[in-house]
Prior knowledge:
Elements: H1 7-27, E1 31-40, E2 46-52, E3 62-66, E4 72-78, E5 83-88, E6 94-103, E7 110-112, E8 120-123, E9 126-128, E10 135-138, E11 145-148, H2 151-200, H3 208-232, E12 249-252, E13 266-271, E14 275-278, E15 282-283, E16 288-289, E17 305-310, H4 312-315, H5 326-334, E18 337-340, H6 348-359, E19 366-371, H7 373-380, H8 392-408, H9 413-416, H10 428-449, E20 453-458, H11 470-473, H12 479-499, E21 503-505, H13 510-514, H14 528-544
Parallel strand pairs: 12-13, 17-18, 17-19, 19-20, 20-21
Antiparallel strand pairs: 1-4, 1-6, 2-3, 2-5, 5-11, 6-7, 6-10, 8-11, 9-10, 13-14, 15-16
Helix pairs in contact: 1-2, 2-3, 5-14, 6-10, 7-10, 10-12
Amino acid sequence: MPWYRSGMVSMRYAGVAVATIGVVWFAWPGLARVSLHVDFASATDYVAVRWDRGRGYDPDFVEVRQVPADGTVTVTVPTTTRSVRIDPRVGPGDVDIAAIRVSGLFTWGRWDAANSFAGWRPAGDAKRLMHSSNLRVVSAGAWPQISHRGIGKVVRRTVRIERWIVTSAVALFVVLLGFLGSGRRRQGRVRAHASRATRVGRRENVNVAGLALGVGSLVLFGAVAWGLYAWLRQPPETGYDDAGGAYSLSFIDWRGARLSGQRGPLRMLIDPWTFYRPAPGQRTEHFLIDEHGFRDGVPAGDAPLLAVLGGSATFGYGLKPGEQTICGRLGDALGMRPINAGVPGFLSGQELSHMVHRVDPVRPAHYVVFNGWNDLVGMLERPARPVAVNGMFFAFTDRLRNDYLDEAGADADDAFRITWPPSGVGDAVFRCAFEYVSNLERMKAWAHERGATFLVAFQPIVFHRERRSPSEARIEFNRQRVAEYFRFLDIAAEMCRTAGISFVDVGADARVRTADDTLFLDPVHLTAAGCRVVADVLADRFAENRVLGR
């Protein structure tokens, strides 16, 4: 029988052909689509989508799209893309990005970030609102941006899903054709055998074992195909602070009831003194929170206690399991028992209250405050992005203020308005620095009253670095805000000298500026190497005078 008339042989050749085509198809880089649904609150109605193929955000790879009536903008992106940046070129007003989707050209394989925005990082003036799954962008004179550094993985995974579906369907079709072709010939042979057997008085049965083998092969093939599809369909890796990331937040009340839609592993408890703080008694793969609400607890022993206060950089945002925070490394270097009292998002006023009401009961012998960035950004952007849980703190204060004005009359507005000291100063950065140092002065007074030393460490940012690593070089932020922070530190330093507050400008140290290691995960949060360098700078400051600020 010729080879082309044999069902099993033709099926083998067809399988080899399909496999060859599949390998070539899988090797081709291919294309995917990035779609976003945009709702504008201003008259501007277009966005720019840029992608980086390893040469930075090259102007040659920019697509500007008009926003149609349904608000969905779609661009085609090559799988060689390393990162994607979306610039909603808004004028005065806001724009809400309600959904972002990466899909294959046939939309079979897709990754949908409609409700999580996993991996998308705000840059410039982009804000993720705490009470909304949308990503809100507020224009401040420059084009705000959101970007995804790992979009290449998402695009490649999406395209693989689509290709696997198509290849599996073709391969399954070929297998079925082979079995059907061989089945017809086998059926003819069976009939012939049956006729001959009837003549000689015996019966020949159909090959049940062969049929079972064919069905079993199809089932096994389908199971393998589904397993690979499920593996390829897994969502991309999330960042430490993305929705579902290791350090994303959730908010609860004193009974443990959830207060917002955020469902992160780091639970924040509503607090009467600081409005929120880490809920006691938490343990995940990345961190432990003790009964006091301190990360890593209060070590046992007789060595002096060293309390380090601050925001998320102090807390250790982004550190992997087993990596030490600034507090832990500093305690080891000084031979003290470290207490990590950092709380993500805290400003100096909250740190002052935290110090008095939550940290003081364990009676630290030394206080270090590692902060600065949150005070500038938090106070400058408060009108656009209220701090606290879902902005409810300021919503309640606004409600009380409105009730007061309704009762007292509109001309009571001036009497009720909060003013920044000193009055008459219109410089926003100066006002932020004044408020910041005022809180530091109160913290110093409390520490000395309790017999403890007090040291302020101005928080460095990645733009202090003179030699940045390749990953640090890709970090972007609003340059105007960076310049304002440097000026904020200069003003705060002069005020601290005047007030007699011991401080160290960590970003000015040569070890931070010129280290070869990657010290920053993003503009403000430190890697394990960054924590080590900062701890070394602070340890040297302690060595200069073990009784600081006395």
